[in-house]
Specification:
Length: 142
């Protein structure tokens, strides 16, 4: 059973993220941002997907596993606890449950990594998603 990895790209460049993924043996990146766009060069959906493909890593965006706007706002205001409550409530929605099932299917088949922005996994919803998937989790740092 492959491990599940997580990574945040805050403070990193795309090449460092790809190097970390390759070093860990990740073959599939699961982008769990609600909005897969970034002001950081190379981290918007299409560019990131292309960079990963060139490195031999598959890319899947799972919008249903993204944090709702209210949760993102809570983190920006330093209220991680509120984000966790908002996100856990969000995970009852049909789209969230469907994407969680898809993530579980991918992670059961190959080494996969959950991607979001925050460098510290304890301040990010990817920690909650990883727990919900019930796998051994390794948090990568780019």
């Amino acid at each position: 059973m492959p491990d599940l990895f997580t990574i945040g790209y805050e403070g990193s460049i795309v090449d460092s993220v790809v190097t970390s993924l390759l070093g860990a043996g990740v073959t599939h990146l699961l982008d769990i941002r609600a909005v897969p766009q970034s002001r950081k060069p190379g981290f918007s959906k299409r560019l990131l997907g292309g960079t990963l493909a060139a490195a031999g890593i598959r890319y899947t965006h799972l919008r249903g596993l993204g944090t709702p706007k209210a949760g993102r706002d809570a983190v920006r205001h330093g209220d991680v606890g509120a984000m966790h409550r908002i996100f856990r409530a969000h995970m009852q929605a049909p789209e969230a449950l469907a994407d969680l099932a898809r993530a579980a299917e991918i992670a059961a088949a190959e080494p996969a990594c959950l991607l979001c922005f925050e460098r510290d996994h304890t301040h990010c919803h990817r920690q909650i998603v990883a727990e919900m998937l019930g796998k051994t989790v390794r948090h990568l740092v780019a």
